[in-house]
Specification:
Helix content: over 70%
Number of strands: 0
Order of helices and strands: HHHHHHHHHH
Distance between the termini: 47 Å
Largest sheet: none
Strand content: under 5%
Number of helices: 10
Shape: flat
Structural class: mainly alpha
Radius of gyration: 26 Å
């Protein structure tokens, strides 16, 4: 008989480190985060230290170029830390799908760090032409100080991604037994649980790419009206609530709530398709010039993730009412009658034979 949610032992913060492969996987991601955050912080400090007391608000286009580099670097620092948090989360709950997703996300981060090199080089060149840097801080000087770190980050992420992929395969084999103990040997139930894990992992990656696109749009893109700026900023907390509701309704198997969430997902899909078209439109495309490539990458990734999330939402809804809920929701208290019943069944399955000493 499969164990339900109530029978799972209470997990500590670092219990996942009991496994050797989990330790290795977490150490790889932690080392990547330390190197990445340190390098990005150095580049940010070097860039800020080269500026000649620049004040924003005088030239919108120049302000956009000025904010490009800090925005990029802040996004990367957040990305490294968010991947580290998702790694802890995936290992703690033994979510193999999320671990595989982390390998894919790390690959996307690798591609984005390559785009970062050219983007920052162009921004430094344009800022130098605008006379924003200190007299001694020429384009060559600033670029020479930053380029070694910019060119080192992609190989570090590439090697880390390969190592993470090897560990992910080993962790998949380790966690298969734990899932079997939790869900049981029923193939259909394991498949339903797999769809649930995929959906929860997708929600976490949806948040990162949505947030990355929105921050770049708010900080760097020019030509925004006050209404558009306010609505876009308000979309961040609203999106967090929607993603939390999606996870809650899926766990509780609430069809009405899931239908509402799916409708909102379609609204988000329409929004990102609209933005992607606008990035390359003749009338508004020039507003997106400083971050055109990165916004395109984030928009495309977000659109693909939303499409996959919507498809998986329907699959999860089709699994409602088939017994998965009892494995996902932990009761508020233990049922003493059930404990007594289980205790009785375990002792009743094989009664002990009474022995007596007799004197013949």
């Amino acid at each position: 008989m499969a164990q339900n949610a109530a029978s799972r032992p209470k997990m500590g913060v670092f219990d996942f480190l009991e496994s050797s492969w989990a330790k290795i996987f977490f150490a790889i991601v932690a080392l990547q985060a330390i190197i990445g955050v340190t390098f990005e912080a150095y580049i940010f400090g070097k860039f800020q230290g080269s500026l000649d007391n620049y004040k924003t608000g005088q030239n919108e286009e120049r302000d956009a170029q000025y904010m490009t580099i800090p925005t990029f670097l802040a996004l990367f620092i957040f990305g490294f830390l968010y991947v580290l948090f998702l790694t802890w989360d995936a290992l703690r709950w033994k979510n193999t799908i999320q671990i595989i997703g982390l390998c894919i996300a790390n690959l996307a981060l690798f591609v984005y760090t390559i785009l970062q090199i050219d983007q920052i080089n162009r921004s430094i060149d344009k800022l130098q032409a605008a006379g924003i840097f200190l007299p001694m801080e020429t384009h060559a000087a600033v670029w020479q100080a930053c380029s070694p770190f910019l060119f080192t980050i992609p190989p570090v992420i590439g090697v880390a991604t390969i190592a993470m992929s090897v560990c992910a395969w080993k962790l998949y084999q380790e966690f298969a037994w734990d899932i079997l103990k939790q869900i049981g040997a029923d193939y259909r139930m394991k498949k339903r649980f797999l769809h649930y894990q995929i959906f929860i992992a997708l929600l976490k990656f949806d948040f990162f790419f949505f947030l990355g696109f929105t921050i770049q749009f708010l900080v760097v893109v020019t030509g925004k009206t006050d209404i558009e700026l306010g609505l876009t900023a308000a979309a961040i907390p609203v999106t967090i609530v929607i993603l939390l509701c999606a996870a809650f309704f899926t766990q509780r198997e609430n069809r009405v709530g899931m239908c509402a969430v799916i409708i909102l997902f379609f609204g988000g899909l329409a929004y990102f398709l609209f933005k992607l078209v606008r990035i390359y439109s003749q009338s508004h495309g020039w507003h997106y010039t400083p971050v055109k490539r990165s916004l395109t990458a984030f928009a495309v990734m977000t659109i693909l993730l939303i499409l996959i999330t919507i498809a998986n939402s329907f699959i999860c809804m089709s699994n409602f009412g088939n017994g998965l809920k009892m494995h996902l929701i932990k009761p508020k208290g233990r049922d003493p009658e059930k404990d007594d019943m289980n205790s009785f069944q375990m002792t009743d399955q094989k009664p002990q034979l009474q022995t007596r000493m007799t004197i013949d």
